[in-house]
Amino acid sequence: ELADIGVTGLAVMGANLARNAARKGFRVALNNRSNEKTETLLAEHGQEGSFIGSSTIAEFVASLAKPRVVLIMVKAGKPVDIVIDELLEHMEPEDIIVDGGNSLFEDTRRREKTVSDRGLHFVGMGVSGGEEGALEGPSMMPGGTRQAWDRIAPIFTKMAVSVDGLPCCALMGPDGAGHYVKMVHNGIEYADMQLITEAYDLLRTVYGRSAAEIGEIFAGWKTGDLDSYLIEITAAVLAKQDPQGKGALVDMIRDEAEQKGTGRWTAQSALELGVPITAITEAVFARALSGRPEQRRAAEATLGGMRGGTLEAGQAEIDKIRDALYASKIVAYAQGFEQLTVASKQYNWDLDLGLIATIWRGGCIIRASFLDRIREGYASHPDAQSLLLQEYFSAAVLKAEQAWRDVVVVAVQHGVAVPAFASSLAYYDGLRRTRGPANLLQGLRDYFGAHTYRRTDQEGSFHIRWSQDGTEVKS
Ligand code: NBP
């Protein structure tokens, strides 16, 4: 009997997705560049379902029912191209190649073209939820043709987690749409984590609370507006004791964050598209600064550390930090969704923002009850120009606004950096201005570069000699 789906690339993600499919009753063909991984999977988990092992790509492809569905789970980048080329030698028109790795959406657009020129379908699918999600039910964001989706939907919607009876897997749009949505998901995840880190830093550094105490504060936030997976695991991480007996484990961890690139890609795309996603970008830069420990040590020695002494944190201060976190989080999501809106127009993807919020509710790292509000918001205001202008969120931000300002003031006065809190607030304040200060920028640009300006009272572009004596620099 032939297999329903094949998985090639059996490191943690591929192996767990293959087991997930088998546990859901699909017959799964297995392949990996080096055979040990295939053999190990068969030896350790072969009894979980129906698998067909293979040692060559030819054998692997031959073990699949037509039209064939192959899920590639190899390292993002060149390996994906290598595997696609190998598969194309053996697969046939109408077959479907799905890349489930964290590929750059531009690579996906290129690969989709190459594969569809050969008469096959290519689906670029973002998979979120880490290794546990891959096994138990991830959130999956496929991009490709409707025809390919109709063929693979019965498999992938069954593998994905469901929330309120809706699978966290749906067609996002053509070509790179799925990987783009996954990229922005990761960007939002960066911002979300940075905001949590800033709340922690204030409580730890300015208010002198212990990791365990902060863990309890976060545990208390699990039940309110902030209810989310990331808040839940923050409480757990802060509560964890060092197995070597040195107190809270988090206090023993080096403060240098690593990154694999999806946050940076999100920021790069936003810069290309001209979308102001300040929270995500600050989160990427905060990781970059954290990665310069020598420079930070030298700067602290020369310039001094925190300003002023620690403060007492009563319930009022803790509540304010929670409110600032929530308001900043709304801004970060508003920015991420705006980026999706702009990209959707740019690449003709016709993204459904409510559907995106729906499939992010389970399986993925940013899952939160908050996404239900976003989903409802897009259902009732599909054309709102910003999430911040949807009733639920505008009311929430207005309610949190004073606390948000107070928290940023305390951070600034104590010299403790809160780039994501502060830049979210700056974005919010910039957004709330019918008339901002860019009139002056235009004047300057016209002065030195004759870039022209437009007037508030007349149509057309204008240029003027700005200096009265004619000595201005000419471009
Ligand atoms: P890795 O990203 O570590 O990739 C290892 C796999 O790639 C192995 O199967 C390896 O084969 C294969 N491979 C490489 Br490397 N070069 C190859 C080549 N030239 N030809 C064929 N196969 C090659 O695995 P992972 O952590 O399971 O992640 C897989 C994908 O899923 C990545 O794109 C990742 O970014 C994405 N992702 C990961 C997570 C996560 O939590 N880890 C979450 C969501 C998405 P070998 O065994 O022969 O060396």
From TrEMBL:
Gene3D superfamilies: 6-Phosphogluconate Dehydrogenase, domain 3, N-(1-d-carboxylethyl)-l-norvaline Dehydrogenase, domain 2, NAD(P)-binding Rossmann-like Domain. Keywords: Gluconate utilization, NADP, Oxidoreductase, Pentose shunt. It comes from the Bacteria. It catalyses: 6-phospho-D-gluconate + NADP(+) = D-ribulose 5-phosphate + CO2 + NADPH. NADP(+) binds at residues 9-14, 32-34, 74-76, 102. One of its GO terms (molecular function) is NADP binding. Coiled coil: none annotated. Substrate binds at residues 102, 128-130, 185-186, 190, 260, 287, 445, 451. GO terms for biological process: D-gluconate metabolic process; pentose-phosphate shunt. Its EC number is 1.1.1.44. It is an enzyme of class 1 (oxidoreductase). The keyword Oxidoreductase applies. The active site is at 182 (proton acceptor), 189 (proton donor). Residues 178-467 form the 6-phosphogluconate dehydrogenase C-terminal domain. Pathway: Carbohydrate degradation; pentose phosphate pathway; D-ribulose 5-phosphate from D-glucose 6-phosphate (oxidative stage): step 3/3. Catalyzes the oxidative decarboxylation of 6-phosphogluconate to ribulose 5-phosphate and CO(2), with concomitant reduction of NADP to NADPH. Homodimer. NCBIfam families: gnd (TIGR00873), PRK09287.1 (NF006765). Belongs to the 6-phosphogluconate dehydrogenase family. This is 6-phosphogluconate dehydrogenase, decarboxylating.
